[in-house]
Amino acid sequence: YCNPTTKFFQYLEAINMNNLNNINNNPDLHKKGTIIIVNGRSIETFEKKLTFEQIVQLAFNEYTPSESTVYTVTYSKNEHDKGMLTEGDVITVRKELVFNVTKTSRS
User: Fold this and answer.
1) What is the three-class DSSP state of 78?
2) Each residue of 37-51: pLDDT tens digit?
3) In the chain, what's the furthest Cα-to-Cα distance?
4) Which residues pair with 38 in a beta bridge?
5) Closest CA to 32 of 18, 20, 49, 48
6) pTM of the model
7) What distances in angstroms separate CA 27 from CA 20, 22, 24, 101, one per listed residue?
C-alpha cells in the first residue's frame, strides 16, 4: 500500500526536477544583456550591434524617416570614446554606452 499523499508529493517532486532540468538546459535563460542608456533611460539589450535606426526606435518607439524630420544620435562611453551616428551607421554595444537622441522638425 502506498499513501496517496506520498504519491502526490513524489509526483510534484518529479515535475519540479523536470522543470529544473529544462531551465538548466535552456541557454537562452542564462543570457545576460548589456545595459545601455538612451535619453537617460537604462535599457537592456541582447544585441551585439545596434544601428542608427534601432537606437532612434529605442528613444522614440518609432523611426519614421522623412524630409521634414531630422534625427541626431550622439554617443559617449567616456571622454575619449564619443561620437555621432548617421543613418545607416552601426555601433558595437558596450556596457554603459550612453546615447542622446534628438528629433527635429524642419519647417
Assistant:
1) strand
2) 999 999 999 999 999
3) 85
4) 41, 99
5) 48
6) 0.69
7) 13, 10, 8, 33
